[in-house]
Amino acid sequence: MTNVLFLAIDSLRADAIFGGSVVTPTIDSYARRGAAFHQCVCTTTTTTPSFSSMLTGCYPPKHGVRGLQGYRLSSALETMPEAFASAGYSTYAEVTGPLLPETGVLRGFSEARHRQAYKVPFFGWRDEVVSKMRSYVEPWFMLLHIWEVHRPYRSPPDFEKRKDKAGYQAAVHATDEWLEPVFAAAGDDAIIVITGDHGEEYPDTAFDFQMLRAARRARRAFRLSQWFPYLDNRFAGMEIGHGFALHEHLVRVPLVMSGPGIAPRGPVADQVRHVDIFPTLADICGLEPPAHADGRSLRPLIEGRPLPEEAAYMEAVGVKLEGDRIVGARTPEWKLLVSGGGKRSLLRIGGANGPNESRNLYAKHPDVAHKLESFIQSVTDTEVDADSGMTDEEEATVEKHLRDLGYL
What we know:
Layout: E1 4-9, H1 14-18, H2 25-33, E2 35-41, H3 47-56, H4 60-63, H5 80-86, E3 90-95, E4 111-114, H6 126-133, E5 140-146, H7 165-178, H8 180-186, E6 191-196, H9 206-221, H10 224-227, H11 229-236, H12 248-251, E7 252-258, E8 266-273, H13 277-285, H14 299-302, E9 312-316, E10 326-330, E11 334-338, E12 344-348, H15 366-380, H16 392-405
Parallel strand pairs: 1-5, 1-6, 2-8, 3-4, 3-5
Antiparallel strand pairs: 2-7, 6-7, 9-10, 10-11, 11-12
């Protein structure tokens, strides 16, 4: 049985790895010796529900985690660590940010540690984690979630906090370099999975960031939503971070798989999804496939064989939306978005000119829109009662932690 390191880098965009603008030789080396999926779509643009989808292979209506607080992962679903534990693996988790045990996302790990994400040294966790990895009981499955690419961006040598594109790219480059000892501890005979839980929106320059702050102050001070709704709507769209929308740079993340059972495949252009990771690892490692999963094994693509196209379901459920959930469906050519108010937008994201997310083609292509609407309905039909199941004390713990992280 083969060891598995599942690395999730918070806020890692696909173009940060595959776009050529950031130097990432460490991750690139695994992409060359394995499969690099350039069109991987995350399920949500918020951390906790995103991990819930990766670890169950299910979309949010089925696993029940529809936001950062107030939800616990459905106990009816087998998780990835539970499946690996049943197959004889030791299961370990090193996580941070909002992935608290109260959410249920750490169910199935024999050992799980949640690290503080704020006011900590850059990669301050690394030496301890590397030491632990060298003592893991084989075969092992490890989930490693890291926060160094999350806002505010900071990177060596000066660790100055940045909130613009240059700061983000510097953080990605430094993270790639500082990960080398972690991969070395995993060993050459381990399966390595690298992805981001969601993408990121950032201003191009520090000046742009200051303009965004000014726009926020203007919305509050002048009550633009009441007196100038059009201007307020434009300013509201000038957000940074993640969780508030389903833009391409928020839903497209890198996915790299390398190691035993994964021949050098190089770039894969087919659309894949986070919900496909669990079925794929189960297939490669000889585990029983998760019967409840919405995803499927990507082994045919890894082996150079075709796989029929399937749409991806997506949700935006971030705190900034104040409960106004956005749902969507994506194919390599189209993306349909449905806001909490029922507004529908059909966007063309394929073609020679690349994605166009400003022109709504819903009325012009009703056949495409209706097909994607039917897919969304098929996913929402699997909805479970999304009760948290937490005690008042657990709810308070999650809320305090989210405030410390700056989400509330």
